[in-house]
Design a protein that fits this description.
heterodimer, A: about 270 residues, mainly beta, Porin, twelve-stranded antiparallel beta barrel, two-stranded antiparallel sheet, about 5% helix, B: about 375 residues, seven-stranded mixed β-sheet, 24 strands
Chain lengths: ~270, ~375
């Protein structure tokens, strides 16, 4: 009995060691809402357990999610892989004042997204992820309801190609009501067709896909079809933690962003 | 009889002296991070207190460096001068309950009040930030302040918390922005086997004064734990030139049950009872303990409505700012913040005392410390 328990204990430690030290390579670039991805599109690139990311994105005026040609927007985001396959992200989308269009609103759109890694990528098959803006949302312009697959290929020494393809649901669920009258976050759920939603931005509505070509995971080029337009971009990562990226949307306007990521499961420096 | 045992009593300064021949100046400096250090050379046990780190594993790790004696394997962290449990560092980290004899002998030899001998005056800077979002004219309305806080150890387990509050913003109510006392209250911590109590009396955070008692039953080796909390409070604040307070009329009465999943250090907790404003209902918590940081998601279902949100607890860098033998200034070891989408509907509201017993105790759980111990090897 005693022995069996001890073995059990060792198995636990071994499993534990594998869990902590083994992980698939993570790409640093993120999409508009702060998920692993390219520019507008998310990917199924797995994030390590305990990975925490915070960042900022700028979305240009002609592609504003709240309204085309009205205001450019900034997106602040933070997300954490709170369980080995589950990521939780919070976003704040704010319109930026312009000389002709003053912003009059509250703090902005507060959003929450969940991302679940259904399949981990292996040699043979791509990784698969489902991403969903929480249905408790009352009002939101940056809505993600997608399923996406991603596969990596080593095409030359130090060069990796990442290929993603996904589909954005044309329908979603939200909570009907207003922020001042609705206090039950589990009520008033309704189906909504995305194309007739109050913000007709068609963000991630229908099929999308993208490619990223990276050099040692430090820098790379990106190209995507975001379900509406073709976008190209580039990124670079410094000190393994800090990423800067930019994209040229529809050959027309530029978006850019930056993010910082650390793993919260890493031992504190004082203990090393 | 107990006193005849070879037990070395040393304060923080004493630890430095005792270990002076065996440790480098760097480790000697490290020893200043600790207080109330006792080395029982008969049982090869170190008793110590550290107030610097939110993550007790850092304290454990540093204490091990300070004692340098490889025959010492048992470490007993103290809280407000009282032992929490015994941690044995071998191939794995084991948590052993302290026997009544051990508690008694530690108590018989501890000299209170500590401040009479080698007591360290520990001051910490604690930011407080409450905000309401969404107003069109002023998107973020906040009440922010900086607290300079300290503690005075009076008796074993009994501590006076006190401090000074420096206001920064206040757009939530029209109370004057004056430099005033930070929460001032007495806290009694009590530990025996699996039973822990934290009782507070005085002026708390969130403008509440009164009495708050928290009880928790937890075996640090097991996943289940249970808690009870009762509070009787009223409101207070500082108008210009005085103090205003109303009657003790609010009852907070909560019971909870929690389960900790290994090896994720994920705690699921269900709390039910009466929150402030007579709001009865339940709260569900999903809490993940990472290394220094804790992140949680939660939901409320109460008479006043239902809502959800997230919270986190982080240490504020840089930690130590100035540290001498007798005085220390540091940033808080724990900043906690909670966001929920509740408008002004008074869903599941509560107040903060100095520390919440369950939050403090889960940091001493074997699962959480074991993971870091194995990672550090």
């Amino acid at each position: 009995m005693q022995l069996a328990r001890r073995n059990h204990h060792h198995t636990f430690l071994l499993l534990f060691g594998i869990m902590v030290w083994w992980y698939l390579p993570t790409s640093a670039q993120v999409n508009l809402s702060g998920k692993s991805g390219l520019m507008y599109t998310p990917s199924a690139v797995m994030t390590d357990d305990g990975f925490f990311r915070i960042g900022y994105n700028y979305n240009p005026i002609r592609y504003g999610l709240r309204g085309r040609n009205e205001n450019p927007e900034r997106i602040l985001f933070a997300n954490v892989t709170i369980l080995p396959r589950l990521e939780v992200g919070v976003t704040l989308l704010q319109m930026i004042d312009t000389p002709t269009s003053d912003v009059s609103e509250g703090i902005g759109d507060r959003g929450m997204d969940l991302r679940y890694q259904v399949l981990k990528e292996t040699e043979k098959r791509p990784g698969l992820a489902v991403i969903m803006t929480v249905p408790f949302t009352i009002d939101g312009a940056m809505l993600t309801h997608v399923v996406v697959a991603t596969k990596h290929f080593e095409i030359a020494r130090d060069w990796k190609l990442e290929v993603s393809a996904g589909y954005g649901s044309p329908y979603f669920v939200y909570r009907q009501g207003s922020t001042t009258t609705n206090y039950s976050f589990l009520s008033n759920f309704v189906w909504q067709k995305k194309s007739t939603w109050r913000y007709r931005n068609h963000y991630l509505e229908g099929p999308f896909g993208g490619l990223s070509l990276s050099f040692r995971q430090k820098a790379g080029f990106m190209a995507e079809y975001d379900s509406q337009h073709l976008n190209v971009g580039a990124y670079a990562t410094f000190f393994k933690k800090w990423t800067v990226q930019a994209g040229w949307l529809n050959g027309d306007q530029f978006m850019f962003g930056t993010s910082f990521g650390v793993n919260l499961l890493k031992l504190p420096r004082k203990v090393k | 009889m107990i006193k005849s045992r070879l037990l070395i009593l040393v304060g923080c300064l004493g630890a430095g002296q005792l270990l002076a021949q065996t440790v480098s100046p760097k480790d000697q400096k490290l020893s200043r991070n600790f207080e109330n250090v006792w080395i029982d050379s008969l049982t090869k046990t170190v008793y110590y207190e550290q107030r610097l780190y939110r993550n007790p594993f850092i304290g454990l790790h540093e204490m091990r460096k300070v004692v340098k004696d490889s025959s010492i394997r048992d470490f007993v962290p103290l809280m407000q001068g009282l032992p929490i449990a015994k941690y044995r560092l071998g191939p794995t980290l084991e948590v052993l309950p302290l026997s009544e004899q051990e508690r008694l002998s530690h108590r018989a030899l501890s000299v209170f009040p500590y401040q009479r001998r080698d007591y360290k005056f520990d001051f910490w800077i604690q930011p407080v930030f409450a905000a309401r979002f969404g107003n069109f004219l002023k998107p973020v309305r906040s009440n922010a302040s900086i607290l300079l806080q300290s503690q005075v150890y009076l008796l074993p387990g009994l501590t006076l918390y006190w401090g000074v509050l420096f206001p920064i913003t206040n757009e939530l109510d029209n109370r004057p922005q004056i430099i005033r006392p930070a929460p001032v209250f007495l806290n009694k911590f009590y530990a025996k086997k699996d039973h822990f109590v934290s009782a507070s009396l005085g002026f708390f955070h969130n403008d509440k004064y009164g009495l708050n008692v928290q009880y928790r039953r937890v075996d640090f080796n097991k996943p289940w734990s249970y808690g009870l909390e009762i509070g009787v409070t009223g409101n207070y604040y500082y108008p210009r030139g005085g103090i205003y307070y109303d009657q003790l009329y609010e009852l907070l009465l909560l019971a909870d049950v929690a389960y900790c999943f290994r090896p994720l250090d994920l705690t699921l907790k269900l709390t039910g009872g009466q929150f402030l404003w007579n709001d009865k209902g339940v709260r569900f918590d999903f809490i993940r303990q990472f290394a220094n940081v804790e992140i949680g998601l939660f939901a409320y279902l109460t008479q006043n409505g239902s809502t959800a949100g997230f919270n986190f607890a982080v240490p504020i860098p840089p930690g130590k700012i100035l540290q001498g033998k007798k005085v220390r200034l540091r940033t808080t070891e724990e900043f906690r913040w909670e966001y929920m989408y509740a408008g002004t509907f008074k869903i599941g509201e509560r107040y903060q005392v100095g520390y919440q017993l369950d939050q403090r105790l889960r940091q001493y759980h074997q699962f959480y410390l074991q993971r870091q111990y194995q990672q550090s090897k």
